[in-house]
Amino acid sequence: xxxxxxxxxxxxxxxxxxxxxxxxxxxxxxxxxxxxxxxxxxxxxxxxxxxxxxxxxxxxxxxxxxxxxxxxxxxxxxxxxxxxxxxxxxxxxxxxxxxxxxxxxxxxxxxxxxxxxxxxxxxxxxxxxxxxxxxxxxxxxxxxxxxxxxxxxxxxxxxxxxxxxxxxxxxxxxxxxxxxxxxxxxxxxxxxxxxxxxxxxxxxxxxxxxxxxxxxxxxxxxxxxxxxxxxxxxxxxxxxxxxxxxxxxxxxxxxxx
Length: 257
Prior knowledge:
Number of helices: 9
Oligomer: single chain
Number of strands: 2
Distance between the termini: 65 Å
Shape: elongated
């Protein structure tokens, strides 16, 4: 039973570190480092460097930067785009370090699985933020960001102290990702189609009702509607329109496109 628990601990830490890296790498590093530095958890040799005060300090500073950037619509998606090249490799490295002192084949396997897990969670986070950012109010963005931070910190703590519980929750999360990712992809395609119509990037052909792509640039009607939307937004910002009036007039303009 002890051997089984040890395997579960290694697996939970390996997958937990890579899972968290895809969502908030710096929170995961700071959580693991602080837990080890305070004696609340013993990290495997491959992750002991996270307990170094310099590493904890750097991870904590970057977590604060991400905490702020993640709450600003638009900035959060740019931040996620940049971190595509950081979170996934880091997730692979942390997974490889979490398996402990084993043979090279095991480390490479852990890195591959960890990189895949980090890529999946990163895609889920980044894609969902693109969809959420279409909402005009910032509260949904803030809620999603805080929820992600809580999930990462709580998930790492659970992986360290209750590995079996974490592995069960991870299976549920993977099933949820499999269901959610296609819906996010469909929603993002819809957003791009909307902007394509807004800027005259699509034309409807005569007869068959199908849309064909155009590279001629924004149509005159599209430009006029965009200018009207900008004026409408200015009136709303100047408090000349209520929220209900703004949304109603915006919907009317968009329906005419």
